[in-house]
TrEMBL record:
Alphabetized InterPro entries for the sequence: Adenylate_cyclase-assoc_CAP, Adenylate_cyclase-assoc_CAP_C, Adenylate_cyclase-assoc_CAP_N, C-CAP_CF_C-like, CAP/MinC_C, CAP_C_sf, CAP_CS_N, CAP_N
Name of the protein in question: Adenylyl cyclase-associated protein
A single GO BP: actin filament organization
PANTHER family, alphabetized: ADENYLYL CYCLASE-ASSOCIATED PROTEIN
Lineage, opening ranks: Eukaryota, Viridiplantae, Streptophyta, Embryophyta, Tracheophyta
Family: Belongs to the CAP family.
An example Gene Ontology CC term for this record: cytoplasm
C-CAP/cofactor C-like domain residues: 314-451
Biased composition (Low complexity): 242-254
Entry GO MF terms: actin binding; adenylate cyclase binding
Compositional bias of kind Pro residues: 227-241
Organism field: Lithocarpus litseifolius
Pfam families noted in UniProt: CAP_C, CAP_N, CAP_N-CM
Length: 474
């Protein structure tokens, strides 16, 4: 009796062990123990562990001192790096997927990115710059999606650098805001930058400069087993047919048309156009109605002064005649990018609000006109960078700019690189202009300098001398 019971228990344990080794964490399919152990001990995977331990540990340590949403988004950041490690191990045991199978392979990483983006939505938090810096930086982990020069992505090393440039815009705002308030926030901002530059960039450069390494003899990505989910709800119904499919076009043609489509259908049907119109009698004409005297009341005048439509045109981001990039009427767009540009082209930004534009490459000149709460990150300009009729703009120069002019603008933050410290800044009819320059040390704090907006003019020796007003306190 006891021998039979022991045998049944051993059989049950063996079945449980076989089920538990069939699937890995996060629903990632597991492989045989020897193959997984070999992949996990690969030098590239061990180096990724060292990257997480050295750089991610510093970010987490600073976040724990801050707490709140900063710690929450840092935990998501840690989760994203852990998922990337799992994907790197999985890639060493999987054949290179086709373009259709790649999104499914990257699904675990995409889910973490969606989770991070959710933290920046809703009411704006006091730690919004922290959340955006961490969330935007996660796009650097997408280097693992590089499958070749024709995939539409930059090379992995360049992709990491370009992705961090977008996140750095918000990271610099954290450094400026907390440089004299709380050193823990400054430490967090510096640590997250070093996580990517040089951390992730140097890692990719050393181990995956041409993208992830796939297994030539591994299992096809499409043939990998899927983890069972006991008690999971039924799958959702299939999506509707494509708008361009023949079935949908047939179905739509059988339905009655609505709106203007119905009007044009009626006109083209061949019936008399006036057959459905009512005849207007004399008492219905406006000139014969007592309630239509033609005198406009004061209330009606007031209403006519406020237009019921927006004068702003449609949003644009396009290259015109091969020489001029036009960015117009962009509202709430945080990831506008111009990357295919040259030194003979100009960039004109007009009527944008609460948006961020990144210009990657050297252009002839850049003009920002009538924009509100607009951020611009650019590399180099040959002639000048101009800001006109704006309110609350932030500009970051990562390369060089001979001249920066600010005209009729209220609220302007200029971030200069070491290469652009010799730029000439001209201001007119503007206020609240601050210029931030990098510190003397590589890890030093940014120095903030406010440009004068009040001047004293005195007549001496036959001419006027102008000096800025200096305020001193006792």
């Amino acid at each position: 009796m006891e021998e039979k019971l022991v045998a049944r228990l051993e059989s049950a344990v063996a079945r449980l062990e076989s089920l538990s080794t069939g699937f890995g964490s996060r629903g990632l399919p597991a492989f045989d123990v020897d193959t997984t152990a070999a992949a996990s001990s690969d030098p590239s995977i061990l180096a990724f562990d060292a990257l997480i331990s050295q750089y991610m540990g510093r970010v987490s340590s600073a976040a724990e001192k801050i707490g709140g949403q900063v710690l929450e988004v840092t935990n998501v950041l840690q989760e994203a790096f852990n998922v990337q490690k799992e994907l790197l191990i999985k890639a060493k045991q999987t054949q290179k997927p086709d373009p259709a199978g790649l999104p499914e392979f990257l699904k675990p990483l995409n889910e973490v990115m969606v989770k991070a983006n959710a933290l920046t939505e809703g009411r704006r938090s006091e730690f919004f710059n922290h959340l955006k810096s961490a969330t935007d930086s996660l796009s650097a982990l997408a280097w693992i999606a590089f499958t070749g020069k024709d995939c539409g992505m930059s090379m992995p090393i360049a992709h990491v650098e370009e992705s961090w440039q977008m996140a750095e815009f918000y990271n610099n705002k954290v450094l400026v805001e907390y440089k004299s308030k709380d050193p823990n926030h400054v430490e967090w901002a510096k640590a997250i930058k070093e996580l990517y530059l040089p951390g992730l960039r140097d890692y990719v450069k050393s181990h995956y400069p041409l993208g992830p390494v796939w297994s030539a003899t591994g299992k096809p990505a499409a043939a990998l087993p899927k983890a069972p989910t006991p008690g999971a709800p039924a799958p959702p119904p299939p999506p509707p047919a494509s708008l361009f499919s023949s079935e949908s076009s047939q179905a739509s043609s059988s339905r009655p048309k609505e709106g203007m489509a119905a009007v044009f259908q009626e006109i083209s049907s061949g019936k008399p156009v006036t057959s459905g119109l009512r005849k207007v009698t004399d008492d219905m004409k406006t000139k014969n109605r007592a309630d239509r005297s033609g005198v406009v009341s004061a209330g009606e005048k007031g209403r006519s002064n406020s237009p019921s439509f927006s004068k702003a045109g449609p949003p644009k981001l396009e290259l015109q005649v091969g020489r001029k990039w036009v960015v117009e009427n962009q509202i709430g767009k945080k990831q506008l990018v111009i990357d295919d540009c040259d030194s003979k082209q100009s960039v004109y930004v007009y009527g944008c609000k609460e948006s961020v534009l990144q210009i990657q490459g050297k252009v002839n000149n850049i003009t920002i006109d009538k924009c509100t709460k607009m951020g611009v990150v650019f590399t180099d300009v040959v002639a000048a960078f101009e800001i006109v009729n704006c309110n609350g703009v932030e500009v970051q120069c990562q390369g060089s700019a001979p001249t920066i002019s600010v005209d009729n603008t209220t609220g302007c933050q200029l971030y200069l690189s070491k290469e652009s410290l010799g730029t000439s800044i001209t201001t007119a009819k503007s206020s609240e202009i601050n210029v931030l320059v990098p510190g003397a040390e590589p890890d030093g704090d940014w120095g903030e300098h406010s440009l004068p907006q009040q001047f004293v003019h005195t007549f001496k020796d036959g001419h006027f001398e102008t000096t800025p007003v200096s305020h001193t306190g006792g």
